[in-house]
Structure of G-patch domain-containing protein:
Amino acid sequence: MDAAALLKSQGWRGKGFSLHPTNNTIGLAKPILVSRNTDGRGVGKIPHQTSDQWWLHAFDQKLKGLDTSKKGAVVQSVTQGKLDVIASSSGKYSGASGLYASFVRGETIGGTLTPDESTDATPASDDRESASHGLKSWKEKRARRARRAARKSRKIERVARKAAEAEATRKAAQRAASKEANETLKASETREERRARRAERRARKEARGRKRDEKANAPRVDKG
């Protein structure tokens, strides 16, 4: 990708000019240079000692000490080289672990909590969080039960109201039908039939009264 062509298409005037379209004092006219490490300096600008390649020299010394003059046999003639000194050293880092003697142990990074705080504070905090979570869960369950009970009560009320409305409608229809039947009967019967019907109704009423009186005056039998 041609970066210069892309910038020029966006209004850049060319090399030696800033990105501002008219004023060269606004912005940077030269690119920002990236510093490169070419002298072996690291953090703090301390030059590294790279001239003493002791590891390479130790292995080279061992390789040069290999005697291959005898056919089918390889004999190591160097027995006091740098690797031998490391391998034969006594102490903690000896033998196969002898190379660790060349390193310096650094300090450990301490934590931000003391042993008492790390062992005592955490369980208490966990207990408080657990108790808070349990209380919240209990309140949510109680609220859900209350909502379910309210919905059930409203449903029962709706069913009862619908049943009452249906019963009232049925009774009203029954009364209307009875009234219509009576009016039809009255319109079609003669005066004599009306008198006979009234007399019959009066007789039934008197019969019910006599039956009620007989039942009230009947002697009671003691079953005991």
